[in-house]
Fold:
Amino acid sequence: MINFINWVQQKSWRHLVGVLCCFFAIFPLYLVVTASFSSNQSLQSTSFIPTSFVWDNYQLLFTDPKVPFLKWMQNSAMIAASVSLLSVLIGAASAFAFSRLRFKGKRVGLQSLLLVQMFPSVLALSAIYVIMERVYVFAPEWGLGTLGGLVLVYLGGSMGVNIWLMKGFVDSIPLELDEAAKVDGASAMQTYWQIFVPLASPILAVVTLLSFIGLFNEFIMARLFLPENEQRTVAVGLQGFIGGQYAQNWGPFAAGSLLASIPIIVVFMSLQRYIIGGLTAGSVKG
Amino acid sequence: MRILKGNIWAVIAKIIFVSLAMVTLGYLMMAAFGTGDTNIAIFLAVCILLLAFTYFTNLSVPLKFFAPGLMFLGAFVIVPVVFTLSMAGFKYQTGNMLSKEDALSTIIDQGNTTDPDGTSFEVVIGHVGKKQSDVAVIIRIPREDESQVGSALVFDSRLGYYGSDKNNIAVLVSDVYEEGSYPFFISTASELVVLTEEDVEYDDNFVAFKAPGFTQFSEAESDAVVEKLPSIRFKYTDPYFLKVDPPVNGNYMASVNQAEVNYSYFISSKSDYYPIDEKDVVVDDLGQAIGAKNFTKYTSDQISTFADKIGNIRLKYAEPYYVGIENLPSGGNPFGWAIVKIQNITYDKKTDKVTDILTGATYTDDGRGNYRNPENKDDYLDPGWRQGIWFENFTSLVTDPRIRDPLVSVFIWTIVFAVSTVITQFALGLLVAIAMDKKLRGRGIYRSLMILPYAMPSIMSILIWGGMLDRNGAINSLLGWDVSWLQDPFMAKISVLLVNLWLGFPYFYLICSGSLQAIPKELAESASIDGANARQIFRLITLPLLLRMLTPLLIASFAFNFNNFNIIYLLTGGGPKPELDSLAGATDILISYTYKLAFDTTIQNYGLASAISVVIFVIVASISMYGIRKSKVLDDFA
Structure:
């Protein structure tokens, strides 16, 4: 009995908070799941228990020639994978140099890098658009309307965007190691490739994943730069289902969103220990 | 540590890799030069030099790490940002997008119009002489030949005017031999007045010289109009008309004529416009020219190469007109369509004046990016150009009420939005973190479920929330409510905050729970020994410590949300709008408002949008810099 009173005092409110917040967190996701199996094309449901169960929405994604869902997924995956890999390489090198090398103007350089990143990039869109339009004229495979061109544009941010996450990575490598390498006559480049990168590869993988998710989420540029249906990324393609003012097909949108999100959620969940470690290591240091 | 000593393979790999990159860039540079994109070509050349200096010399070790990132940063961040920033000093909006030269050449290119009669021809298109590039068309111009009907239908007449207007030249005709329908009549270019014998006075030869309304010219008056006579067709029964010949001994003879349409043929080429003899022209059944001497018709393959040049072809015609080809032959139709045009807009480089020779209006540079008619301020030429106007875009943010008023309300909401978002996300995250701080059955499950919103791609979740909050969406139908979540200005703001809370609280939960563990347990313990209760411990120890640790993150989150374009754009689109035509909606934050200003309206004002983005930039940058200074994060790097 005392135990129970104790439980009520100590634990019950914690469970209450937990249950309520979990409900808040998963309610929209639950709706997506039910909508994806529903024959109703709206996000309307009058009860929590699904009233119908059909595979039509999924079928549509894989059979309708106007909805090249697999192609969209492939585009998203290719863009996100290549950009996140390259940008982590570039970003890690920059973070390493900023952290371990001595050179003039380091502080100024770092500050200006951070400042430039703070410009509301959405507004520089038109300038980027004009540049890529010109690039298309002389190098059609890298210009406007190509996946390659979009990759290039995304890479513009590779030096600055991940620098905060990279900080955690650089901090986690003991300084003694590269001093030892230096004594052995290693150049900075060798130290980077042969000591830092192998040691930090798990963390680098996490940063790659986070930047992969971030790219998967990118919408504005992808929509502007890839107008062809076949070239769309999955976010832009799916948005087409519900973007129309009068025809909103929530069923296929929900099904597509689920299929696109599940791989990411699974990877995220399985790596959550590292991700959270990285987040807190990067930020929480009194 | 053998691997660290001069690894030959690493050197070879480096050389191959860098050379490949340089060759690629070099190839692109040549291509860019080829298409006239000199700026891009120069940028690529700088990149190549940078690569060469960085990786084939030992001038700077840090640069070896920065070079690739710097190249991308320069091309796709710095250049666009600098360009956008510099546009804040320009009048740069729809209608004023080009450089002055481009605007002028567009004005000149478009500065032509059809001739007043709208003359056009069906033409065959080909070339003259041997050179295929000497484009030419054969033009058929109808001409009316007049021919006398028979030889006897000639009347004696007197020259004068009809009515009171002396310019209304008329002849008083007498059909002495009664060969026509009526004995006496007055004829002008537009009228035929039949008279009877009683109406007129006639002389001995039955030639009338006086009739009502008709006044005979004196000899001097006759001499003055006599040269006009050949061009006047005096009325007679259609389709015939009268021609009056010059007088013989003061006697005028009017002959009955009819018109006959005949054709003249001309060749109109880039360099010349000349008539061709009828016998040198090949015509079809309808008299349409299909060929001529010294003229070769293009084959359909040759024609198709014109498709994109068609607008630029100008062929000679009677000055100041020219012939433009409007349509190419297509399908089974062998003829194209040519229109007579005139270049009515001309430019004088010395005075920098544009003149419309048809209206006589002149246009001068108004210093505001347009050629404007100084006599009529509303009359200007389109397009205009980007005109430097210094700080006008900035001052108009403050002085122009049409710009200032929406901006102020948007700015206030941006602050409210960013602050409330940070507070609500942090508060809920902290609450959950505290709740989960103790060992708890099912904590792992709670945690996994609660970080789902963080793991889910936010694009999808924002859109889904948009559907749920729709008037007919899940929330209303499940709760049986009828709330305009996204249509009512106040509820829309609440909805944005709610959705953003959903998106962001898991992150703060993770951060807070990490930080809570970093707070030494001894502090709380010693406080509780001193008699502090749980609430006091939280308020006086945990929270202040936590806030101190997390200030930089809170500031970063504020800066992020200050520019959180996606949630506004995808959830409400900035709406609802207070009025149908207003640009700023109730939930528009600065960045979404600026985006609309630059891209989403009919009059896109890049200049103004750039000015606002400079303001946004200054605000966000100073807040973030303050946060960075405070957190001493830079010291860790330095």
